[in-house]
Amino acid sequence: KMAADTSVDILQKVLENEILQSAKVVEEHLDAEIQKLDQMDEDELEHLKQRRLEALKKSQQQKQEWLSKGHGEYREIPSERDFFQEVKESKNVVCHFYRDTTFRCQIMDKHLTALAKKHIETKFLKLNAEKSPFLCERLRIKVIPTLALIKDGKTQDYVVGFTDLGNTDDFTTETLEWRLGCADVINYSGNLMEPPFQSQKYGTSFTKLDKKTIRGKIYDSDSDDD
C-alpha cells in the first residue's frame, strides 16, 4: 500500500509541475505582449488602432456587398438565364439542381438553408432541373440532387447525390460543409483531412447509390420515391 501511495504522490507532483510550467509559459507570453504595448509610443498605438479600424470597415463593406448580391440566403432562381447572371456577379456559387418530386432534394434544401446563413461569402441557389434542360445537358447533370460548385464563373466540382456525404439520408450539415470546403467554394475552418462522417456508424467505405432512370428525362434520380 505504501508503494502505491508513493506512486500516487509522484504522479501528483509531476502533474502539479506540468501545470505550473504551462502557467509560466502563458504568463511569460502575456508579459511579453504587455511589454511590447508599453514600449509603443502614442503614434504607433494610433497607427495600430487605425489599421484595425480599416480592416473592420473593409470587412463590413465586403459583407454589405455580398448581401446586396443575394448572399446570406438560400433562394430559388426562376430560369437558366438568371443562372448566368447570378454566377457572373459572385466569386463563389453553390447551385442545387433539384426536382419537386425528389425527396432527397428536400433534405439538401434543409442543409443549404443553414449553410447560406453561415457562409455569406458564397451565394447559394437552387434551380429546377426540369425547367433547365440546356444547363443540365451542358453541365452533364444526370443525377438529382446535384450541386454545381462554381468559382470565378467556372464549374469546378459537383456533389452528385449523397455518395460523398456518407451515403446516407441522415448526413449532417457539417458533412456537407466539409465537402464544400474540399472544393474551396466556402471558407472552411475545420480540418479537410478529417471528414465529419468518419466517426459515424457508416464508416468511410462507401458504395455508390443505386440510381433509377426516369423515363424520358436526361438525368437519373437519386431518390426512392419516384
TrEMBL record:
The UniProt keyword set, sorted, is: Cytoplasm, Cytoskeleton, Nucleus, Phosphoprotein
Which ranges carry the Thioredoxin domain? 53-181
Q: What is its main location?
A: cytoplasm
Give yes or no: UniProt keyword Nucleotide-binding.
no
A GO cellular component annotation in the UniProt record? midbody
- Keyword flag Cytoplasm: yes
Which ranges of the sequence are coiled-coil? none
Q: Where in the cell is it found?
A: Cytoplasm, Cytoskeleton, Microtubule organizing center, Centrosome; Midbody; Nucleus
- What job does this protein perform? Significantly diminishes the chaperonin TCP1 complex ATPase activity, thus negatively impacts protein folding, including that of actin or tubulin.
The entry describes its oligomerization and partners as: Forms ternary complexes with the chaperonin TCP1 complex, spanning the cylindrical chaperonin cavity and contacting at least 2 subunits.
According to UniProt, the name of this protein is Thioredoxin domain-containing protein 9
Q: Which gene specifies this protein's sequence? A: Txndc9
